[in-house]
Design brief:
single chain, 314 residues, mainly alpha, three-stranded antiparallel β-sheet, two-stranded antiparallel sheet
Amino acid sequence: MLYKELVKEWLQEKQNYVKESTYALYDYEMKNYILPALGNYDVIDVTEGVIQECAIRWQNTKSSSGKFLKVSTIQNWIVLIKQTIRYAVRKKYLDQYNIKIFIPTTFTPNLVRDNRTVFTTDEQKRIMQYVDAHPNQNTIGIALCLSSGLRIGEVCALQWQDINLHNQTVYVGKTIQRIYNKETTPHTHIIITPPKSISSVRTIPLSHHTWMLLKTLKEELCPTETEYLLSGTDFPLEPRCYRRFYGKFLEMANVSYRKFHCLRHTFATYCVEKGGDYKCISEMLGHSSIKITMDRYVHPNIEQKRKLVEMLEL
């Protein structure tokens, strides 16, 4: 049996157990990255050494944008390969499974931490000032993400029925995304699903400022409960359209461009800097553990580091 035949069988089984978006990701990464490297091998020949060589080759490969592949990306591919090998053992195509792959941690420019992953206090003020001066569904959506850490798919999927102005909370129970399937026409389509994990289903308190913006907006628009916040209709605004608006928004607000996800980074980082409880922050972000919050979203600035060093002086 060829490895590509094993993968086809594995994907068919996975389709019954994972979300549509997860299956689409598995299918895309297999067909575009893993199978070109391993597809024509016999399953029995997909050994630890062969996979290790692939990992090293991938690490030295640049993407179409000219950047080296992220270590986390390669690790994800290795996880997928291991899943298929375990499947082969379970189906008795192979006798045993015992593969350990090591990804070299040699330096590449991609490993440098980008210190611009959060908006400065001054930039946050400019963002909120622009929202106050131009309040509408889309600008208020950005304020909501900055003050609650919502992901772009989550804010695009918000309906007015998810916003409780009486309790001053927002309920996050779904997300929207565009997924790719090369075998369909068109090759992509929009889906609305529960968030990425059980922990991501959550209720978040609204800041007073954001609550007032939403309250005023609702009084002006008189929307139905099923209308989506950003689109103002019964059909959601898709994330790529909102990203385009976001880029123009930052330009009009005179704020240097950051990826949309940096609104979430900023929320988490400043919550920690203000002395927020880590468990509380983690739950508001929808993480399953505090470790994820600390490792992924907390970026101490140079002033904090300087204070720490000065505390050590005798």
